[in-house]
User: Which sequence fits this backbone?
């Protein structure tokens, strides 16, 4: 499982078509929010993950972003996230419109400085998604923050 880490603590799910133009300041207004969104003219919504500087990964099979709050390792994480999908404790945050290929990256890095080893590529089918959040505690020593994309029926 590939994890991204940054001292800054804010990540952006940036449309691939905009990465080269990314100035590193587009998401500053939502930096303190654990999960936020900003709009890019002609490029749609950008989903952000901020607050604390926590490592982040993406699990495509459940369209869920995972932030590592506390744990010795990530063994058993995928199973715990899969189990959490059935929880009734998910909190609705907001809706976003997404489509295509995105780059999950440190939002403070300019597009010219983005390195392939410092990103995770995410494919999202065209649609409107409800972003939901949940904290899971798989055992006494582990805690992870989850944010998932749930398709909204039209």
Assistant:
């Amino acid at each position: 499982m590939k994890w991204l880490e940054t001292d800054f603590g804010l990540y952006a799910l940036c449309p691939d078509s905009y990465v080269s133009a990314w100035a590193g300041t587009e998401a500053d207004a939502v930096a303190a929010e654990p999960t936020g969104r900003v709009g890019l003219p002609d490029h749609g919504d950008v989903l952000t993950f901020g607050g604390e500087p926590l490592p982040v990964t993406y699990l495509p099979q459940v369209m869920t972003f995972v932030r590592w709050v506390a744990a010795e390792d990530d063994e058993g994480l995928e199973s715990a996230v899969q189990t959490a999908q059935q929880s009734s404790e998910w909190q609705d945050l907001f809706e976003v419109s997404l489509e295509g290929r995105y780059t999950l990256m440190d939002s403070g890095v300019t597009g010219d400085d983005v390195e392939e080893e410092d990103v995770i590529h995410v494919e999202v089918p065209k649609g409107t998604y409800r972003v939901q959040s949940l904290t899971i505690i798989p055992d006494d020593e582990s805690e992870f923050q989850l944010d998932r994309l749930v398709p909204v029926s039209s």
Summary: The first strand starts at residue 11 and ends at 15. Helices lie at 77-84. The longest helix spans residues 77-84.
